[in-house]
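Appendix B, Record 12. Input sequence as logged:
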Amino acid sequence: MANILYISDLAAPELAPFARLTEAQLRSRRDPAAGVFIAESPKVIALALDAGLTPTAFLMEERHLTGQGAPLIARCGDVPVYTASREVLTGLTGYPLTRGILCAFRRPAPDTPEAVCAGARRVAVLEGIVDTTNVGAIFRSAAGLHMDAVLLSPTCCDPLNRRAVRVSMGTVFQIPWARVDLPPDQWPTQGPELLGRLGFATAAMALSDTARPIDDPQAAAEPRLAIFLGTEGDGLAQQTIARCTYTLCIPMSHGVDSLNVAAASAVAFWQLRARS
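Logged structural output:
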């Protein structure tokens, strides 16, 4: 049965996840089991529910109780639904809600690299990518362009960051992913080695005089391939590149040296997808 709660006090503690907690506080690093994340818009919230994630509360404009929010509320039993007019909720969050609906979810238990890579043929590996928009866009490309899993280096931003979830259009719930638990200074040497132990050839996407074109047939023919993408600006660490099986680049024109990492990921995922 729906548990509709009309908001009268914008300072109520139960509303903190939607407006007053930082992303770090939402993650609750001291107690990961207590962590939450925020999903925005009906489509993204529905995909989170489809993935079996547990909602803890809704925040939505009153007009959506019988509109776009109704099917979501019906799926969630007695989960609290905090509601008010658009004007009141904008005062709470500081901005108009994305399509008028937010939902707080419990963070899922983290997967391991071994679990998400089991049976995978193509894996995207993100090294030090910190822009939430880029991470969300890469997840969307990975899910749509035939990657089987995503691995994150220790310094990558959180894929369950509110903006990353929104930009991914919920694909962070559709493709398996895991963070590699290594000290950051050990990642450039041990990250590629980990993928090798898991049975993958490794391809570093990097600007290099010795890089092969992205359409290299030998790389594309690998039965299992992990595609490494580096941080904005600096790209992959030289130690990472040196330990990868291949170094690949996208041939450019008109004097452009490279693409944004999210755009480059889409080209790489499509070109290097498993063909059979």
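The longest strand covers residues 55-61.
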